[in-house]
Amino acid sequence: MRATLRLLVLIPALGLFACKEAPPPPPPPPPFHTILDLKQFMLLVIDPAADGVWDSVKTIMTKKGTEEIRPKTEEQWTAVRASAATVAEAANLLMLDGRARDKNEWMTAVRRLTDTAEKAMQAAEAKDPDAVFTAGGEMYEACRGCHQRYAPRLNNATEGVKDDNKDTAKAPAADAARK
Q: Which domains does the chain have, with CATH numbers?
């Protein structure tokens, strides 16, 4: 009798487990359709936007004297803010499968770029050229750190631009890196 009672309890319980629905299938991959490879993305999106921040606040020294470059108009400040926002948001696209080089150090480096670009954006919103300069230097260091790990040949490029008179114009990021 006890064995029959156990079977009467066990059979419905087994039926409950057998009728349990299978887990839902995993969601489909995101519908991203990237057009640019990583090198093209850097050259066409990240670099021009970063240059918009770096070129906005700088000091140019020539034989004729020193020229301080700063945004002066609302339009110029908006352009700096847009450049910084582009770097910050585009950095998220560096985390996509196919662009991300790994799930650890790469992601940390990209987050650093996002954070420093956000600082530059906030500095531009505040119309603070010194803070833009500082954030631009931090952006440069974020880029440089990533390039050291993932594209070491890029760190061998010469900094600064020489004109025909052999004067040197230095970007703020290059100045910040030397300090």
A: 38-178 (1.20.120)
